[in-house]
Amino acid sequence: MPRLLRSARRLCLLLATLLAPTLSAPLAAAGQEDLLPVDEAFALSASAPERGRVELRWVIAEGYYLYRHRTAVEVLDGGFSGTSLTLPAGERHTDEFFGEVETYRGALAATLTGMAADGAATLRLRVKYQGCADLGICYPPQVRELDVALPPAPAAPLASLPGGPLFGAAPRSTLLGEDTTAAGPGLPLPETEAYRVEVATDGPERLVLRVSIAPGYYLYRDKTTFAARSGRGATVVPGEWPPARTIRDEYFGEQAVYFDELLLPLTVRRTQPGADTLHLELGFMGCQENGVCYPPLSRRFEIALADAPANVTASEPPSAGGAVPRLGLLAALGFALLGGLILNLMPCVLPILSLKALGLAGSGESPARARAHALWYSAGVVLSFAALGALALGLRAAGLALGWGFQLQQPLVVGALALLMFAIGLSLSGVFTLGGGLAGLGQSLATRSGPAGDFFTGVLAVVVAAPCTAPFMGAALAYAFAAPAGVALGVFVALGLGLALPFLVIGFLPGLAARLPKPGAWMDRLKQFLAFPMYLTAVWLLWVLAKQRGADAVGWLLGGAVLLALGLWAWEAARYRGTTLRALALAIAAAGLAVLWPVQQLPPAHASAAAEGGGVPQPTADGSLPYSATTLASLRAQGRVVFVNMTADWCVSCKANERAVLATEAFRSALERAGAVYLKGDWTNVDPAITAYLAEHGAVGVPFYAVYPADGGAPEVLPALLTSGLVEAALTRAAARRGTR
After folding, report:
1. Are 159 and 35 in contact (CB under 8 A)?
2. pTM score > 0.85 for this model?
3. Which of 20, 149, 260, 359 makes an SS bond possible with 183, Cβ 3.0 to 4.6 Å?
4. Distance of CA 178 to the CA centre of its chain
5. For residue 192, is pLDDT > 60?
6. What is the largest distance, in Å, between two alpha-carbon atoms of the chain?
7. Does domain 191-315 have CATH number 1.10.645.10?
8. What is the C-alpha separation between 451 and 474, in angstroms, rounded?
9. Which class for 159: exposed (0-12), middle (13-18), buried (19 or more C-beta within 10 A)?
């Protein structure tokens, strides 16, 4: 359906533009925020290397294309007769509206040939073209009028000298970077020539970035980003930016830019002593003065770092009981065990544990069977924690993820969990009963299940526990991600043991098991009641998905849920009616699951709040500003106290802190008394800027809170569990350092 709607919108737009070729109104609002301005998508320039030839060039951004049959040039003035436009062959494309066409991607170079009149110095051209984006939206037909300077006519030959003319024909003017009074900036340089980037080491803790900028080009300061990773946890923080020029940008407003050269010191923060290899990625954007703008550019460097000084770890920002405490192995294991135990009380885990409670209530079995239930469930929990921890460690080492909770940044995972919770609820409500052939999946989620059921109930408990990082888990996970792999896996096993501990105790202490209620008719009612926590969990996951991918994702998933319910109901109805009907039921249920693929392909619902971008950040409804490294650096340079909150919509602990502390009048009053600014980073989707910030502070996920003092010193990192008194005290301490700057 979303694709159908996009096609309908595109068809309406094309019909409107074909009926009104001079249309210049903005594109339809739908999808406009995802599009580049037309002159950035198709950057047009023209020059005349010879009097009888004009060259036109479009630099086409990635994900965009031009139509060959919609490209034309007309000479308006200047005396240029016998014109002929030559276009290269394009890429064959079957267009849903124009049929068989040719398109251009990347670049288009066209040549207009003719005969210039004697004395003609400038041509005025009218250029027409039309293009589209791969998003499924087309721009209206574009019309641009350009003035192109013609080279002077060749000097007349001097016949009085033997051997021919004294001078040959006038040389062809330079095509790349040409800057004449009438021809405009000329064709853009290749981006590697426009911006030459170097990084040099200046000791084990300092780098120097140098960007040599070609004449007539400039670089945006606030669109420059840094991402770094290393085997020993080193990160990079930019130093003081040199003075920049301010320009008025057509699209971004007032911007600080650099011409000629940028020299920027970079501080390397080392968390461990010893030699290291730093992988640094620089992101930046720049433009040709009065010409085209390049798409976002990047450079990657691999830098060998010398042995860090012995005191380098002492220079890290101090922790106030927050995300980066220094623990010994035994303390980390203890915190992990306690954190896993607390997870049993978290709202995202309770629905799963309710299933085990139902099974235990109806067990009425021998002590040996009770121990078997407990052991199989614990095996599922511990092995799943170990596997998920190993995956998180591997992705972190590869630079693809930061730490815990990374899986819930993927709409595919969130959608799959929502459908799974919905299916469990249907089973508990009696819509269907999973039996023999599907025991490994179905009976794992039903009461009085066998070993496979107990094991997979433990697996499911771990999968949904990720967003409920308990306060004690943060300390243990921070230790795990900085420790060797073997030790780290031990921490994850301890987390699993903590989550499984209540059922281990009940299984191995017959006296406790005997105190559980006896089986009876009440169990059917309880089973039906426990379906509602599953439905509520599915609703919560659907809300998270809406935050990640918008209303289209919700529509897809609701449609898939209906198909899944129909398929499971049909499976139950066809249980004793042959394999054909059951196969049809499974096909319907599979169609319901297939909606997860288009959901994953949808673009984010909105631009990330943490993305580095231009313009003045605007406060949100809760009074916070969207986080960016540039905004934080600017506020600190002004001597402001800054409260940073890194959060995510799937993080239950984050939402609990925000509702209990950060959304209160007491918090707003504390901010006002301290003269503080509230910055919030949204990590619901993958965001490299927030990931880099969390890595810089040694955090393994969200929530993460830091209070930056007024004197520009190191931030105070707060615990993952907030109280109003704790936050107010931190803000007061930060404001008290204002006079020491």
Report:
1. no
2. no
3. 149
4. 39
5. yes
6. 124
7. no
8. 32
9. exposed
2-149, CATH topology level = Immunoglobulin-like (2.60.40)
Q: Which are the contacts of 520, defined by CB distance < 8 A and separation ≥ 6?
A: none
One of 3.40.30.10, 3.60.15.10, 3.40.120.10, 3.40.1400.10 is the CATH number of 625-740, namely 3.40.30.10
**To which H or E segment does residue 383 belong?**
helix 367-397
> Which band of pLDDT confidence, cut at 50, 70 and 90, is reported for residue 183?
very low
Which one has a higher pLDDT value, 270 or 547? 547
The C-alpha angle 654, 657, 658, rounded to 5 degrees, equals: 85
Which residue has better confidence, 471 or 248? 248
Beta bridge partners of 644: 679, 706
**Is residue 611 predicted with pLDDT exceeding 50?**
no
Nearest to 469 by CA among 380, 631, 346, 564: 346
pLDDT surpasses 80 at 30? no
Dump the DSSP string for 249-280: ETTTEEEEEEESEEEEEEEEE-SS-S-EEEEE
Distance in angstroms (rounded) separating the CA atoms of residues 80 and 83: 7
356 exposure class (CB count in 10 Å sphere: 0-12, 13-18, 19+): buried
Give the model's pLDDT for residue 363: 53
**Alpha-helical regions (H) of 154-299:** 191-194
Where do the domains of the chain lie? Answer: 2-149, 191-315, 329-601, 625-740
CA atoms within 13 A on the CB side of 577: 11
Minimum mean pLDDT range among 6-10, 35-39, 329-333, 683-687: 6-10
703 prior amide bond cis, ω within 30 = yes
Locate the DSSP E strands across 2-106: 42-50, 53-60, 64-67, 72-77, 80-86, 91-95, 99-104
Structure tokens given for 305: 């770092």
Position 163 scores a pLDDT of 35
Scan for tokens 């404001």, then name that residue: 735
In the predicted model, what is the mean pLDDT of residues 543-560? 90
Which two structure tokens, joined as six digits, stand for 620? 């949100």
Chain centroid, CA 321 distance in Å: 29
CA atoms within 13 A on the CB side of 605: 18
659 has which bridge partners? Answer: none
Q: Which amino acid is at 223?
A: K
In this structure, how many other beta carbons lie within 10 angstroms of the beta carbon of residue 568? 23
Contact by Cβ (8 Å): 210, 197: yes
Closest C-alpha among 34, 661, 699, 584 to residue 322 = 699
Is the pLDDT confidence value at 218 over 60?
A: yes
Q: Is the pLDDT of residue 27 over 50?
A: no
Name, of 222-236, 302-316, 649-663, the range with top average pLDDT. 649-663
pLDDT in tens, 411-444: 888 898 889 888 888 887 888 875 433 333 433 4
Burial class (CB in 10 A: 0-12, 13-18, 19+), 26: exposed
Q: What tokens does 548 get? A: 């990640």
Q: Do domains 191-315 and 625-740 have the same CATH topology?
A: no
- Note the residue count of the chain: 741
Q: Which strands sit side by side in the sheet containing 42-50, from one edge to the other?
A: 42-50, 53-60, 107-116, 80-86
The total of other beta-carbon atoms located within 10 Å of residue 191's CB is 12
Token pair belonging to 167: 């001078």
